[in-house]
Amino acid sequence: xxxxxxxxxxxxxxxxxxxxxxxxxxxxxxxxxxxxxxxxxxxxxxxxxxxxxxxxxxxxxxxxxxxxxxxxxxxxxxxxxxxxxxxxxxxxxxxxxxxxx
Length: 101
What we know:
With 101 residues, the protein is mostly helical. Helices cover 77% and strands 0% of the residues. α2 packs across α4 and α3 (40-56) runs antiparallel to α4 (60-90).
């Protein structure tokens, strides 16, 4: 990887962080939970990307970065499904007892 490739990669990373912050800051708090549950596919792509990094890596630093990326991606996927499950539980009808009838 030459210096121009590294500079391009850093530029794309910084721009994506800035755009991500700008987009997330405009989302109202009531929409964060549904958006988080819908973003599981994005986190799945992060996990796949980390696997590709691990497959192409030949240094210990590459393996460590791939492991950290896979761990964070997996936590986000699991967390998204947990939040989605809790959100869906809120909309289930509560069982009525026979004393109320």
